[in-house]
Amino acid sequence: MDSRVRSEDPDSKEARPASAVTPRGWDDRIIKSVSLILVGVVVVFTVFNGEAAAHAIGVFRTFVTRNFTWYFVVLATLALFFCIYMAVGRRGSIVLGGEDAKPEYGRFAWYSMLFACGQGIGLIFWSVAEPILVKNDNPIQDRISVDKLDGALIWGYFHWAVHAWAIYCVVALCLALSFHNRKAAMTFRDAVVGMFPEGARRTVGLVVEVIAILATVFGLSTSFAFAAMQLTAGLEQTFNLDGGGVIRVLVIIGIGVLAGASVYLGIEKGMKRVSEVNSILSIVLVVGVLLAGPTLYLLSVLPQTAGQYFWSMWWMGTWADASSAMAPLHSWDDSWNGVWTVFIWCWCWAFSPFVGSFIARISRGRSVREFVIGVLGIPSAICVIWIGVVGGAALFYDETRGGVVTEAVGQDTSLGLFAMLKELPWQPVVFILLLAATILVGTYYLTSLDSGVHALSGFVASATKPSRVFRVTLVAGIAAIAFLLLSIGGESVVGTVQTGTIIGALPYTAVVLLMMVNTARQTNLELRSRLEEPASDSSHADGVREQDSAQD
Fold first, then answer.
1. Which region among 115-129, 278-292, 349-363, 530-544 has the lowest average model confidence (pLDDT)?
2. Are 188 and 353 in contact (CB under 8 A)?
3. What does the alpha-carbon distance between residue 83 and residue 97 come to, in Å, rounded to a whole number?
4. DSSP letter (8 states) at residue 18
């Protein structure tokens, strides 16, 4: 492995190389201090003003839904087109790390890590809940002739497959080109500040990094809350427990302790081992449902809905529900896009800082074209298969057994997956899959939180080795925000938790737009200079020949 890349490991003892544009020393301390203070302010305000915090959350989400639905819809599609733009033509042939760079991982390992660092907890939570909740109310049924069950799966594919991974891909690609090809540090400030005047770069870099950190903190807090909800439900359903809120508190403490230990131990001793468990349990769950569940229906509905999804994806990617903007929006949940697309896109944007940085690190030696195809294609295909099998089984049992899954989701959104699994035949298989799903909720979130905290600590300590204590402090802060979101949510706990990602994602998307512009600009300049070099060399040689002739 290249020594410069190895030094970027948060647990490496080697110092990171300094870049000309990345603030060091005091600037890193400022970023760390400001980030911790802002997170602390949110926590303290919520503790002492719970009702006011809940009201503010609702008002903010309504404001974003009313004014920025079109923006988030367009932005996800723009990210997809940007990735395609970078993959075609001469840009696609650019190798991350230079022409002589070789991939550090085989394709199978690379593909596996791509999916492992993404939204595992999101898929587990929503692969059943979303199809069940939207089957009787989804916009695509008014546009194309499609069965309501097929339409429910199609929207699940749309929210978690290509467009979601385009969000990760655009961030990862911008960071990868900055890090591997321009020899900058793995920070957002380095990927942005080059397009600003020299005198403004330090200030811009500080603001950009703080925004990226806050987006990640709120995104991870949201995932922590969902993981706590579903892990609690899994324990109660698997072992027939009824501990009310006590179990949820114990789950939050347990996840926090395990995550803190994992980030303290480091990537090799912590995250790597948990990721291996993820892969095994994911295969067990999906294959188990496919074989033990309605196999013939799943084998039929999966290709049928996948084809419809890829056919309708472009219309869905531009549908902003313009008719809802003709009248004032009194609450965010009055908008279909506000409940679904805006929230999920914001969750993806909030996850993209650490998912993007991780993907960028492991992709040295890949061409831009291979990078885009790999990041967009393989994880999207896995998401479609996962939702098609797990969500399809839930819809099948819900329709054939009197709405049993709908009833469970109406009671508690986190119960959807476990309600579906309980409908499978053969009790030993049911128990094994319930246990696998319960463990998977915890392990998927541990890997997300682990990689996220390592990325965060790298963003705020680019000049020195990140502190293990600081990483553990970040885990505690994220756990505290998750607990508070769950506490103040009341009956609308899911909506309250969802707002956490929206708070962090909205300002962060401005950073991503700057990264896209700077990446396109830098890439075009590099390609132009590459084309001019042979011409310059040729003219120089002609000049030498003319001079020699004159002398003769």
1. 530-544
2. yes
3. 18
4. P
Q: Taken in order 186, 188, 189, 190, is the CA torsion positive or negative? A: positive
Contacts of 22 (CB under 8 A, 6+ apart): 184, 185, 187, 189, 190, 205, 462, 463
pLDDT of 14 higher than 70: no
Rounded (10°) angle between helices 468-488 and 427-459: 120
Question: Under a CB-based contact definition with an 8 Å cutoff, are residues 329 and 65 in contact?
Answer: yes
What whole-number distance in Å separates Cα of residue 110 and Cα of residue 105?
Answer: 6
Q: Which tokens is 194 given?
A: 């080059």
Query: Band of the pLDDT at 170, cuts 50, 70, 90?
Result: very high
pLDDT at 153: 95
Q: Name the residue among 9, 13, 226 with its Cα closest to residue 125.
A: 226
Q: Is 88 left (phi over 0), alpha (psi -120 to 50) or beta?
A: beta
pLDDT > 70: percent of the chain = 81
The CB density around residue 50, as the number of other CB atoms within 10 Å, is 14
Determine the angle formed by the axes of helices 120-134 and 148-160, rounding to 10 degrees: 150
Lookup: tokens for 452: 């996220």
CA distances, 230 to each of 126, 205, 235, 409 (Å)? 10, 38, 9, 12
Rounded distance between C-alpha atoms, residue 353 and residue 217, angstroms: 10
CB atoms under 10 Å from CB of 505, counted, come to 28
Q: Which domains does the chain have, with CATH numbers?
A: 3-316+328-528 (1.20.1730)
Cβ atoms 465, 439 nearer than 8 A: no
Q: How far apart are CA 358 and CA 169, in angstroms?
A: 11
This model's pTM is above 0.90: no
| Closest to 479 measured CA to CA, from 200, 223, 282 | 223
With helix as H, strand as E and coil as C, how does 442-466 read? HHHHHHHHHHHHHHHHHHCCCCCCC
Tokens of 10: 């948060």
The answer to whether 215 touches 500, Cβ cutoff 8 Å, is no
Q: Which of 31-40, 195-204, 470-479 has the lowest mean pLDDT?
A: 470-479
Residue 25 and residue 202: Cα distance in Å, rounded?
Answer: 12
Does residue 391 carry a pLDDT above 90?
yes
- d(CA 335, CA 224) in angstroms, rounded, equals 26
- With a CB cutoff of 8 Å and minimum separation 6, the contacts of 199 are none
Model pLDDT for residues 36-89, shown as the tens digit of each residue:
788 778 777 777 776 787 788 788 888 999 999 999 999 999 999 999 999 998
